[in-house]
Design goal:
CATH architecture of the largest domain: 3-Layer(aba) Sandwich
Strand order of the largest sheet: 1-9-8-5-4-2-3-12
CATH superfamily of the largest domain: Type I PLP-dependent aspartate aminotransferase-like (Major domain)
Structural class: alpha/beta
CATH class of the largest domain: Alpha Beta
Distance between the termini: 24 Å
Number of strands: 13
Number of domains: 2
Number of helices: 14
Radius of gyration: 21 Å
Strand content: 5-15%
Length: 382
């Protein structure tokens, strides 16, 4: 029987033709024609004031940490239920990731927990849009305003999602996106930083260009460029941008297909959710999702691990998600938890993700659902 992986990247249109064109244009380093085109398209998709393509979402988060002017001893509030890059960006500046709990319904950062975690050392809140669903940015923005904090969106999973009509990427001061091959729109690796504050744009360009004012030089604003600030080589090469540009061409089709798969899963597990056997994702009020992820919550860790093994035996990849950062070795070393994170611990032990990618066929989705039902309806202990 043919295996169904958790993810499979796809060629949708002009990806390979664009790569060839990039080679023919004679510039493979960053900030060529395809990079500039992608920057403009991401601005159009998000409504941000500016977008800067990066070699990864990790790079975009590290740029955000620099723009927050983090220094040793500063604190940044974030959920523990996130990927390591969110915390690494902060720890690399010598600042302390302060881990707070998540909302049990949305799996996004609990805004009340975030507000309680603010101290005189707090400089920013990094809000993760889990499963592509925007975090409660209105309530987080109030906390940020009340305490003079920067608000950063970890929007790695959220391109194309909205909150009350505003796209992810335009909900905070800045946002980091991912185009890793597991995301909706892919370039293998790749990311972007979007900015809503005009006063941050020029410095973001400098940080991205190794701390130099090269962008101003290329625009003819200075007659030479030099080292003016901290930075690193955060640009992607043109081959990544060329591939990404073709994927952005198909953004509407990708969104529609992923939402169709999401809806098929929802219909397939509806009765099991109704009986209380599983729980599925549901967008919060005011949120439109992008079909990034379909997960189910099982009874406990034994149920979850047994389900994963059952699906693996049938050739279907169904991974869990996130060992909580507050209990990870580096999380204990570099960060701290603000109180007990009971929801995070509970969710991380019960959540499992189902395959979700462009080329996943309806028949494969049905096979996944049928195989899952075999485990989920079996007598306990069997």
């Amino acid at each position: 029987m043919q295996k169904i992986p958790f993810n499979r990247p796809s060629i949708l249109g002009r990806e390979l033709a664009n790569v060839r064109t990039a080679v023919e244009l004679g510039q493979l380093s960053g900030d060529g024609a395809f990079t500039r085109d992608c920057n403009q398209r991401i601005v159009a998709l998000t409504g941000a004031k500016s977008a800067l393509l990066t070699h990864s979402c990790t790079a975009a988060l590290e740029m955000a940490a620099l723009l927050c002017n983090l220094a040793p001893g500063d604190e940044v509030i974030m959920p523990s239920f996130t990927f390591v890059s969110t915390a690494n960006a902060v720890a690399l500046r010598g600042a302390v990731p302060v881990f707070v709990d998540i909302d049990p319904e949305t799996l996004n950062i609990d805004p009340e927990a975030a507000a309680r975690a603010v101290t005189p050392r707090t400089k920013a809140i990094f809000a993760v849009h889990y499963a592509g669903y925007p975090a409660p940015m209105d309530r987080l923005a109030k906390t940020a305003r009340d305490h003079g904090l920067l608000l950063v969106e970890d929007a790695a999973q959220a391109l194309g999602s909205t909150l009350n009509g505003t796209p992810a990427g335009a909900l905070g001061d800045m946002a980091a996106f991912s185009f890793h091959e597991t995301k909706n729109i892919v370039s293998g690796e790749g990311g972007a930083l979007t900015l809503m504050r005009p006063d941050l744009i020029e410095r973001a360009e400098i940080i991205r260009e190794k701390g130099t004012n090269r962008s101003r030089f290329l625009r003819g604003q200075v007659d030479k460029y030099t080292w003016v600030d901290l930075g690193s080589s955060f640009l992607p090469g043109e081959l990544i941008a060329a591939f990404l540009a073709a994927q952005l061409d198909e953004a509407g089709a990708i969104l529609a297909r992923r939402l169709a798969i999401f809806d098929r899963y929802t219909a397939g597990f509806q009765d099991l959710e109704g009986s209380g056997r599983v729980r599925m994702p549901h967008p919060p009020a005011g949120v439109t999702g992008n079909g990034h992820m379909f997960y189910i919550l099982l009874r406990d860790i034994d149920d979850r691990d047994g389900f994963i093994a059952h699906m693996r035996a049938a050739g279907i990849g169904t991974p869990f998600h996130y060992v909580p950062l507050h209990s990870a070795p580096a999380g204990l070393r570099y960060g701290r938890a603000d109180g007990p994170l009971q929801v995070t611990d509970d969710i991380s032990a019960r959540l499992v993700r189902l395959p979700m990618f462009w080329a996943l066929e309806d028949a494969e989705v049905d096979r996944i659902i049928t195989t899952a039902w075999a485990w989920l309806t079996a007598p306990l202990g069997q």
